Amino acid sequence: MKKALITGITGQDGSYLAEFLLSKGYQVYGLKRRTATPNFENIQHILDKIEIISGDLLDLSSLIEAIRASDPDEVYNLAAQSFVADSWPQAIYTGYATGLGVTNILEAIRLTKPDIRFYQASSSEMFGKVLEIPQKETTPFYPRSPYAVSKVCGHWITVNYRESYGMYTCSGILFNHESPRRGLEFVTRKVTNGVAKIKLGLQKELRLGNLDAKRDWGYAGDYVKAMWLMLQQENPEDYVIATGETHSVRELVEIAFDYVGLDWNKYIVQDPNLMRPAEVDLLLGDPKKAMDKLGWKPEITFENLIKTMIDSDMQKLKAKK
Length: 321
Ligand code: NAP
Ligand code: G4F
Hints:
Number of domains: 2
CATH architecture of the largest domain: 3-Layer(aba) Sandwich
Protein name: GDP-mannose 4,6-dehydratase
Family: Belongs to the NAD(P)-dependent epimerase/dehydratase family. GDP-mannose 4,6-dehydratase subfamily.
Keywords: Lyase, NADP
Largest sheet: 7 strands, parallel
Radius of gyration: 19 Å
CATH topology of the largest domain: Rossmann fold
Strand order of the largest sheet: 3-2-1-4-5-6-11
Bound molecules: NADP nicotinamide-adenine-dinucleotide phosphate, ligand G4F
Shape: globular
EC number: 4.2.1.47
CATH class of the largest domain: Alpha Beta
Number of strands: 13
Distance between the termini: 44 Å
Structural class: alpha/beta
Order of helices and strands: EHEEHEHEHEEHEEEHEEHEHH
Strand content: 15-25%
CATH superfamily of the largest domain: NAD(P)-binding Rossmann-like Domain
Function: Catalyzes the conversion of GDP-D-mannose to GDP-4-dehydro-6-deoxy-D-mannose.
């Protein structure tokens, strides 16, 4: 039985990856930092099938202990301060967690079990003010937020440990991926939850920032399969994972309000406080390498993804009511 350690197991991707690895027969361990209130919502349904290990990406000793305790074949580093907007007011913390945290986990692996196969959650945010359309593995980075700068650090240290020590380390450069488990602060979930609340009479308006920004949005359940596939190859390499389609926030809003039969113009309020100090205007990925080498492809369309998220938010809100 293969063993995997997932950092960030309570997050969106961690929960889908844990489910996927369990379905492949893995023994799954999840690193969980201490929080004052419980946040097991995404993994509640599989808690009896996985083992939780206490630890924090900022605490090297806890990472070494986590690797000793789980003795994994594969480590998936998904933990991060992942909300771009908060990376300006928390630039230093983001640098520690999202950037230096990657060096911590790589050091823990190098010192304990260097033949572990390692996955790093790199991000399309690294392309930032894009230097090429569409973006692929060879496109240079131009990060536009403290988050993206930290991810570039995490990305290159992953490449560096591969080249310096011959370790099996891969980065997946994942474009935005969403699901009903997406945090409420990210724009897709903010919109689907807001639309559901408006439809149910629980909210009167939805305040958003930049409606012109474009993203290549996919489904998280599809993307975790690519993470696993990267670690099953003969040689470690980096891959872009994307749908190859881009949509604006305005299109997202239109699709969402249309689905519940409402006119979005009546409810959307543009709020200057939600504009970012530096924006990433357009992301569009080219997943050709992943399709050719990994045999990976996205399964769910953008429109269906948004509809599924609205259905799920409706259900949750009705259950609460
Ligand atoms: P998420 O829902 O925000 O989950 C982040 C996870 O990291 C949570 O489990 C969180 O734990 C944990 N974490 C944060 N700081 C930690 C620390 N210091 N020590 C240990 N754990 C810590 O993020 P996601 O959407 O699943 O994304 C997973 C990873 O992929 C992240 O690295 C993100 O930056 C990257 N990424 C995401 C996307 C996307 O579109 N979703 C695209 C590209 C890359 P708590 O529950 O305690 O907060
Ligand atoms: O949903 P977002 O906050 O995601 P963003 O910034 O693209 O980052 C996500 O994807 C990255 C991959 O490219 C990940 F690395 C990262 O961890 C995270 O998962 O914002 C998307 C767009 C932005 O252009 C933002 O300015 O939506 C725009 N937007 C407009 N109004 C808004 C809002 N974003 C948020 N969160 N909230 C708004 O009210």
